[in-house]
Amino acid sequence: MAKILLVEDNELNQDMLTRRLKRRGYEVVWAIDGEESLGIAIRETPDLILMDMGLPGIDGYEATRLIKAEAQTASIPIIGLSAHAMTGDRDKAIRAGCDDYDTKPIEFSRLIEKVDKILGDG
Q: Is residue 37, in this structure, part of any structural domain at all?
C-alpha cells in the first residue's frame, strides 16, 4: 500500500482528502504546515506528497524546495495543490520542485488520476 503525505492546513480539506484517499487504498499521513512536512517526509518516507502551496509560515513552495534539497527525500514526487489558479502558478510550483500541480477546489477524479499515474497505479 502506497503512503501519501498530505500537507494541508485546512481541517475540512485534510479530512475529506484523507478519507477519500484511504478508501482508494492509500495509507495517509499528514502535516499542517511546511515546517512539519519536512520532518514527516524524512521520518515517514512517503511514496508521494500532496503539498498545499498556500501554507502559513513556510509555504508549500519553500517546503517543496527544502524537501527536494534533502538527499533522502529528494526523489519523493510532489503534487502541488493551490486555490490560486492564476497564470504562472503551475510554473512556479514546478520550478519549486513539484512534479505536478492541481487546483482547488479539488476535483478528486482528476487528482486521483495524477496520483495513480505518479505511483504507477493508473
A: yes
- Asked, for residue 72, whether it belongs to a domain, the answer is yes
Do the domain assignments include residue 44? yes
Q: Residues 6 or more apart from 98 whose CB is under 8 A from it?
A: 51, 64, 78, 79, 80
Measured distance CA(39)–CA(87) in Å, rounded: 31
- The model's pTM: 0.96
What is the residue-level pLDDT of the chain in tens, covering all 122 positions?
899 999 999 999 999 999 999 999 999 999 999 999 999 999 999 999 999 999 989 999 999 999 999 999 999 999 999 987 677 889 999 999 999 999 999 999 999 999 999 998 75
